[in-house]
Amino acid sequence: MRHKFAVIGLGRFGNSIARTLAERGAEVLAVDNNEDHVEDIKEDVAYAVALDATDIRALEAQNVQDMDAAIVAIGEDFEALLITTANLQELNIKRIITRAANKQQRRILEKMGIQEILSPEGEVGKTVAERLLQPNIRTFLPLPDNYEIVEINTPRGIANKSLAKISLREKYNLNMITIKRFFEEIQDGKPTQVEHIIGVPKADTIIYPSDILILIGKKHDIKRFIDINR
Ligand code: ADP
């Protein structure tokens, strides 16, 4: 069954959430009290409706209560954000995700029992800083309990060694998911570097200097592994 989400507030943040969800196949109800913002996204989501989300009857009329989750992405008008959030709680929406611009707003939302609070500005800043500090980390998927999946360039210290020799599990508590490797192939008559996955790595798999490693483990273990083998 398709996931159903309501996105309320279609500024830059809400607009990008709504679009991404729709692109990934979710059924999205996009809501804003500004007609222009609704118009802007109409073609790209299942439903786009202009209404004032502080009006609980208006939300109910759009069946917001049947959504799997609702995201409140209203930015500047914190009062509207609070009333909208309270409306969603009153409509018994299973999962409510709300935006907070600062610590005070976050505290109030926590006191209302909201468990998922997003601070887009703060989160982007954190991601950028982490990327700058860890130039080896190409992408990462944060997971609960401080775990993450990362894609890293091969640290110099482990190049040309076998997996068994590196003792990823024993020494670093890390698991290698797979390796991305470049192969020279002829395309349109020209030798071209093409990226492949080597499948599930084995103990005798040798790591090449140009390999990209995909690892899972705790953040501090990944950092330690990179630092030691830099
Ligand atoms: P950003 O662009 O940083 O995501 P904005 O504050 O510009 O944030 O966007 C918030 C959006 O929320 C705007 O499109 C605004 O029209 C919308 N909005 C504000 N109040 C309400 C409301 N009561 N009901 C529905 N949408 C609202």
UniProtKB/TrEMBL annotation:
<dbReference type="InterPro" id="IPR003148">
    <property type="entry name" value="RCK_N"/>
</dbReference>
<protein>
    <submittedName>
        <fullName>Trk system potassium uptake protein TrkA</fullName>
    </submittedName>
</protein>
<dbReference type="GO" id="GO:0006813">
    <property type="term" value="P:potassium ion transport"/>
</dbReference>
<dbReference type="GO" id="GO:0008324">
    <property type="term" value="F:monoatomic cation transmembrane transporter activity"/>
</dbReference>
<dbReference type="Pfam" id="PF02080">
    <property type="entry name" value="TrkA_C"/>
</dbReference>
<dbReference type="Pfam" id="PF02254">
    <property type="entry name" value="TrkA_N"/>
</dbReference>
<dbReference type="InterPro" id="IPR036721">
    <property type="entry name" value="RCK_C_sf"/>
</dbReference>
<dbReference type="InterPro" id="IPR006037">
    <property type="entry name" value="RCK_C"/>
</dbReference>
<dbReference type="InterPro" id="IPR050721">
    <property type="entry name" value="Trk_Ktr_HKT_K-transport"/>
</dbReference>
<feature type="domain" description="RCK N-terminal">
    <location>
        <begin position="2"/>
        <end position="118"/>
    </location>
</feature>
<dbReference type="InterPro" id="IPR036291">
    <property type="entry name" value="NAD(P)-bd_dom_sf"/>
</dbReference>
<feature type="domain" description="RCK C-terminal">
    <location>
        <begin position="135"/>
        <end position="230"/>
    </location>
</feature>
